[in-house]
Amino acid sequence: MKLKRVYWNLIMFAAIGVLGTVGGVVGWSAALLLRGAARPATVSARWCALGVAASWSGVALRWAVSGLPGWWLPVPLAVTALAVPLALADLGHRRLPDVLTLPAYPILGAALCVAAVTGPEEGLAVRAMVGGAVFATAHLLVHAVAPNALGAGDVKLSGSLGGVLGATGWPALVVAAFAAAVVTLVLAGSAVLLRARRWREGVPHGPGMLAATCLIAVFPGSGWR
């Protein structure tokens, strides 16, 4: 029994190390992609790499220690890989570049397909599609009413994130929307206190959406049941 535990610990640490290293490469590549886009949104490659590396290591630890299902693992990895560079871009430029928001659909769609095919959850794919449509529609309506409060990039991103949220359960859509609003309010308050000039035209909403979706993807709780 002790020998099996030692082997499992070795596997766990190896998985954390490997995923952390690969995540760093992914984050660095995403920063280069943003820098070389038609409309560049330069972010720190170092912080982007460190952020994705830390996120992927955390996901690996969650899988090894807390029992995150292996069939769901591709989803939080894909979400965090997109979330870090997009959040940095939105915080720095108040933009969610198409070079990442549009590929988010096939990337997250592929991860959700893997979860739907390999996992035991019935209806996951349907919930993902409906959740994406509902989340995108809600954000589109808000954008139509208050475009300064919610940009076009937020609308483009909302559909792919809504797919992840819907896959975990319907309440996740409401929880994520509320949590994203809270994060945006905190950023707005911070901007007032710090007199941040770059956000005079509006506070970025993307970081809140991304943070909420990451937390729900990494800690889906009992949403499937």
TrEMBL record:
* Presence of the UniProt keyword Metal-binding in the record: no
- Any idea which UniProt keywords this protein has? Methyltransferase, Transferase
Question: GO molecular function: any one?
Answer: aspartic-type endopeptidase activity
Q: Which GO terms describe its biological process?
A: methylation; signal peptide processing
Record's Gene Ontology CC terms? Answer: plasma membrane
The UniProt similarity line reads: Belongs to the peptidase A24 family.
Q: Identify this protein by name.
A: Leader peptidase (Prepilin peptidase) / N-methyltransferase
To which species is this protein native? Answer: Prauserella marina
